[in-house]
Amino acid sequence: MKNKKIIIIGGGVIGLGIGWQLTKSGTDVTIYDSAEAGRAASWAAAGMLAPLAEAHTEEPDLLNLGCESLALYPKWVSELESDAKMSVGFRVEGTLIVGLESDDTHQLRHLYQAQQQLGLNVNWLSGGEVREIESALSPRVSAAIQCETDYQVDNRLMVTALKTAYLNNGGVLHENSPIEKIHTKDCHVEGIETQDGFQPAEIVILSAGCWSSQVNGIPDEFCPPVRPVKGQMMALQMEDGISINSVIRTVRARYPTSVYLVPRTDGRLIIGATSEEMGYDTRITVGGMFELLRGAWEAVPGVYELPILETWTGLRPGSRDNAPILGKTPIENLIYATGHYRNGILLTPITAYEISKLVLSGNTSDALKSFQLDRFLE
């Protein structure tokens, strides 16, 4: 397969990650992105690597995939930083899930019991114990769950590093190059149509995030069921006396939006995120910013004094069951790597490693089997 032409549609962390791994094996890879590579959902994310904090008892396969990918992160970071000659801001201070009122504590306790049933490495902390770890937390914080092995990475640095590593290894990148159509014949992929004409390929990998379902040429019955889920976010500038080291997540029983606060090594504090079914609307709203600021202020009152650096929105690619769509499709040599929803950054290593192995060997690994398109075709 090394001598065959691979085309990847979509240059976010998933597409760049797969492309980077394939170019390292000597494969001929070209990535097409409709805008600037990595500047959509990958750029908008918070970079949390939190399979434990986001664990749900009804999603054991997704939890296992997330934990497997998290276990790959030290290797991934070492390999990527070596190839790109830059840091990606990998931090291991862990995550704290906090509640502020009795209703929150009840909901937090329910989550903790579910995490214990799943055998996860989590700890229950009193309000006093958690404030010993993060003194900036509100005196109202009544309890917390500590997820010591939920980490973070600076997703924007990882985008830059992946792009650099991919290009350094001989990958070809076409930005601002929308795909007009995927060409298929007799249920076999032949290539793609771009603004520069037909581009042949032995294998096409679709990793276009929430736009994956908008690519022409795929029969309706095999179109990936991926939709955009809007998230509004902001960044503040931490100052002396008003800073945190851990990722903080809130549980608020009375409010529609729970927030997270993610500290960066450069002093930024990322606050997110709303979850809105608004199609491709990327407008920032007063209501969205209000919910984020209220949630952040209730957990860490000192944010009231901090300057706002940036506000933005992102469109998460949510599938019908909010799990990724990975692997082969009924169209021969058309591979999907999309629908990662809230877990794109977390799942980048395992997606890149396993999809590149699939391309090179033709074999679907056990890690991918539960996440193929065929689960929606039955």
Salient structural properties:
378 residues, 19 strands, D-Amino Acid Oxidase, Chain A, domain 2, 26% strand, 9 helices, FAD/NAD(P)-binding domain, six-stranded mixed beta sheet, alpha/beta, single chain
Describe the structure concisely.
The protein contains 9 helices and 19 strands. By secondary structure, the protein is an alpha/beta fold. The chain has an 8-stranded mixed β-sheet with strand order 5-6-4-14-15-16-13-17. It has a 6-stranded mixed β-sheet with strand order 8-2-1-12-19-18, with helices on one face. The chain has a 3-stranded antiparallel β-sheet with strand order 9-10-11, with no helix packed on it.
Topology:
Layout: E1 5-9, H1 13-24, E2 28-32, H2 41-44, E3 48-49, H3 60-84, E4 95-99, H4 102-117, E5 123-126, H5 127-133, E6 143-147, E7 151-152, H6 155-168, E8 172-174, E9 179-184, E10 189-194, E11 197-200, E12 203-206, E13 226-237, E14 247-251, E15 260-263, E16 268-272, H7 286-299, E17 308-319, E18 325-328, E19 334-338, H8 348-361, H9 366-369
Parallel strand pairs: 1-2, 1-12, 2-8, 4-14, 12-19
Antiparallel strand pairs: 3-7, 4-6, 5-6, 9-10, 10-11, 13-16, 13-17, 14-15, 15-16, 18-19
Structure description:
This protein is α/β, with parallel strands linked by helices and 378 residues long. The chain has 9 helices and 19 strands. It has helices at residues 13-24, 41-44, 60-84, 102-117, 127-133, 155-168, 286-299, 348-361, 366-369; strands at residues 5-9, 28-32, 48-49, 95-99, 123-126, 143-147, 151-152, 172-174, 179-184, 189-194, 197-200, 203-206, 226-237, 247-251, 260-263, 268-272, 308-319, 325-328, 334-338. A hairpin with an 8-residue loop joins strand 14 and strand 15. The protein is globular. The protein starts with a strand and ends in a 9-residue tail after the last helix. The relative contact order is 0.19. The mean pLDDT is 95.
